[in-house]
Amino acid sequence: MADKTIPLNWLNAPEHTDRKLREPVLRALGWCNDLLEGTLWKTHTVNGQCTLQRTINEHIITLDPLEAANMDLGLESRYSPGHLPIEVNNTSVCVRSRPSHEPPLHTDMVASVILLLADDDVDPATIPKTLHGILTDEQRAALPPQRSQRARTAPGQPSTSGRDFLPEARILELIQQHPNATFSVQFERRDGTLRNMIARRNVAFDAHDDEDNVEEATVTFGYNPADYHLESVIDVPLGEYRMLATDRVTEMTIGGETMRTDSAE
Fold first, then answer.
1. So what's the pLDDT on residue 19?
2. Same domain for 213 and 131?
3. 121-147 per-position pLDDT tens digit
4. Residue 179 shares a structural domain with residue 55
């Protein structure tokens, strides 16, 4: 096998795969092949699977473009959705895309990593935090300081504002009854202020419909939002996901029904 070629004919795509899904995956694999030219990546066959490998500071980095393609085609994978099939020293590393309404193809993300780690002149500041283990002590010390984060409020704590809230069970029931509806909602943030939002249920990361999805939600957020009275939604005007505090909603309009408490403003 040539050192710079991913065998596209090894792609494990079922015959009935939709062409509109298969074609962008093949284009992304072709991009991976194009990017390999002139880089330090080499192909490496493991258990009949073609992977890419290179070494950085004596750490072996392994990428699996064909596994990424299988994930994009909806096939079974040992990697969680949204995560890259990437390993450091044969151990899986959590590298994923930012949550979005239209997440990129896993295969496109692999191509981006090929380009990011193409040669010896790697900029440590561009490497995802979860890959900082491949850096030397000197490189980590030279990283720019992290932006200070605002103090976090403890999630799931009872409100102390004295406001009246709509029953949480009813809020969850309505959101589940109208999974594709755009709705308006006002709720109290954990810092005690009110937030108005035009939202839609974030079905890609929901953990309420099926208990089996709780593990996926935990991987995605680092915790299960439902445990803290939170629901992942899409802020429609921004096109970004946000958390809705389902236990402290003061007003909501969904499915033609409007509910509000005396605390709504």
1. 77
2. no
3. 888 888 888 899 999 999 988 888 876
4. no
